[in-house]
Write the structure tokens for this entry.
Amino acid sequence: MTKYRLAAIAAVTFAFVTTFSQLEAQTVAPAGDAALGKAKFMGYGCYECHGTMGQGNYFSAPRIAPHPLPYRALISYIRRPSGEMPSYAASILPDKDVADIYAYLSSITSGKPASSIPALSSVTTKPK
Ligand code: HEC
């Protein structure tokens, strides 16, 4: 009896650990190439709405870089967007290309704050 109970506990623990490590594997972004990603960001037309550096545009799409969404959230949005964005199935935009695009978006650094640019500092709205 105890032997079966132990086996059951071991099986449940094993299932839990396996599931958890699979989830973890999906959370970690696969290795991508930022230079290739930039070319793909242009090639697939992401830039047309999000801007060449993912900076977004008030009229077409939000900013997606710097600090892109975590990889898992990003790829699931690309596969099944909920708003105006067209969806990209894996048959059109393979996971490998998403990994490269993610590497590109992650490589984009923040620009200078507007307050440090003399021509903009006088027109910048300061938080109250
Ligand atoms: C036709 C315009 C258009 C194109 C092309 C486009 N997007 Fe989008 N994207 C949007 C819009 C608009 C949103 C805002 C949410 C919505 O309406 O779907 C968005 C949202 C997103 C988001 C979620 C942002 C967030 O913070 O929730 C990601 C990530 C994203 N786009 C990535 C991409 C990538 C990568 C590509 C290229 C493979 C791409 N988009 C191509 C219009 C576009």
